[in-house]
Structure formats: C-alpha cells, structure tokens
Amino acid sequence: MSLIIYAIGFILLTVLVFFLMKKLYHRFSYPVFVPIFTTSLLIVCFLLLFNISYHTYMSGGEWIARLLGPAVVALAIPLFDHREMLKKYFFTIVFSVCIGAIIGISSGLALGVVFQLDQNLLLSIAPKSVTTPIAMDISELSGGTPTLTAVYVMIAGISGAMFGHFGMNLFKVKHPIAKGIGFGTASHGIGTAKALEIGSLEGAISSISMTLSAIMTSIFCPIIIAIIF
Asked: Could you write out the DSSP letters of every residue in 101-119?
C-alpha cells in the first residue's frame, strides 16, 4: 500500500513541478529555463535533499516514462499533416541527416581524443545523439558502457533543447526544414519536443530526422569506430 502511495505522490510531484517550470519558461523564455532541464534539476535536488533513492522515485516515475511510447506514436499526426512537404524535401532530409549523423559521431570522438579520454569513454560518447535505447545498444556492441551513454544522450538532448534555437537564430537558420533536421538529428526526442514548440512542420521534420538519425548512426558508428581504433 505504501508503495502505491509513493508512486502516486511522485507522479503528482513530477507533473506539478513540470507544470510550474513550464509556466516559468513561458514568462521568462531563457534557454536555462527550458522545462525539461529545470524539472529534472529540481527533482534531483528533491531526491538528494530527502535522501530518496532513484529506485523509490521510479515507483511512480516509470509510469510517466511509459507514456513515451504513445507520445512517439502521436508524432505520426504532424507527419501526416505535412506529408506533401516531406515528399518534396525527402532527399534533402535524408542527405542532411546522413551528414549530421556522421558529424555527431565524429565530433564526440574527436573531442574525446583531443582531451585524451579513456577509450571506454570514447566508445560510450560516440552514439550520444540518438534516442537512449538505440544509443545504449550501439554502445554495448561497440565496447562502451551503456549507462554512461545514457548520460551523454541526456546531456545532448537537454543542451540541444536549451541552446539549439538560440544557435540557429545566431547563425540565421530560418527555414523550418533546416530547424527540424537540426533538432531531430542532434537532440533526438527532447529536441523534437522543442521543435514542436516552434511549429508543427519543424516537429514533423524533427521526428522523421530523429528516426533516420538512429538508423544511420547504427550503420555508421561501428564503421567510424573501426576506422579510428
């Protein structure tokens, strides 16, 4: 019975904190106030302050995590709405995501080599720009540590959601197709959520870019790692 109470409590806590952080972000639209970041930070601080284990929190948090599946399926709606645009820019999207996937893998490895990181860390960081389950599988097959990869994926997603739009404005990237490809390829699901905030077309392009990026990273990552190592 107590476990059920804990679960309900953590679900309500998470939803309440996210709701408040979303209100804060709407009022002060600064990158550091992106709800996914501030909510995660406050929840972590709460758990540390009251010495609550991650396992205990996930008694309720796992039910929120299970909504990820239906949320991904729901991305089919903007895809369907913008299907003509997707057909028109199909080859542009595929080519751009292909280049983005290669750069995403190579940039992480290059920075790791520059800073002389351990080989295990290098192999763990390589698939950082794709959705967590696929990134962890790629990491395990390549000889990395899946749990470390999950952390890198989270950092890539949150940082992309926080600073991606700012970077695009800085470099005057205005086309919705380009914005969608950037968010989906570099910051997977979290980036796609940010792209949907900007517009439904950006969200649709981001969702398909996220999927293509996962496929291409699965292909290119082992090849690039084999060439380097």
From this structure: HHHHHHHHHHHHHHTT--H
